[in-house]
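re the bet — no i am not wrong, look at it urself. input seq straight from the record:
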Amino acid sequence: MTKKEFLAGIKDGIPIGLGYFAVAFSLGIFAKSAGLSPLQGLVASFLNHASAGEYALSSAIHSKATYIEIAIATLVINARYFLMSCALGQRFDPKTPFIHRLLVGFGITDEIFGIAIARGKTVSPFYNYGAFFIAVPLWSTGTALGIIAGSILPANIVSALSVALYGMFIAIIIPPCRKNFALAACVISSFAMSYAFSVLPHIKDLSGGTRTIILTVVISSIVAFIKPIPEEDKEEDK
């Protein structure tokens, strides 16, 4: 059963890993501008499996943020994985050892969480391990190769490839914003406040990492208070 679950995870993880590779390559181009070496990018991606979190990491490094600011920004942006880990942990057999829960929590991503939850009421950690086995190496090597490409390709091509990362984020946020007015208002507010923070006296003197932390916490808290998720929507997600 363990081998069967592991192989099933590998099979389902292949398309996810290929998608990760393409995204990570663009992130690697951006990470090169932040001064990361291929080895540093490889390690960073192996330890951070979120595109938004890795982009925040590279942005913070590029703006010369402190270690504390980088750690807090990455923690805040990746906080949703705490909730995913708790939800997925409830699908494990109660006798599942803590080490398996810890390792699955380390490697959880939006997509891997989705395919694991879709398996049914009971989930084997070995299914997640199979998905990790494919997805995480492709994610990590994609970043490293992106950094290498950024080092050898002409500057105009690197600049063009860097735009792909912003296009990816636009492609992620536009479809849900068209369906959810509150989410659209949140995105627009984040753009406006981010610009305001860059020009307002005193606030503009804060580091980019600190501004990111403040904006993330403030905007998400306000939207959660003003427009909480309806109870019926929560029931549908279960």
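see?? The radius of gyration is 19 Å. told u. also Confidence is low (pLDDT under 50) at residues 234-238. so pay up
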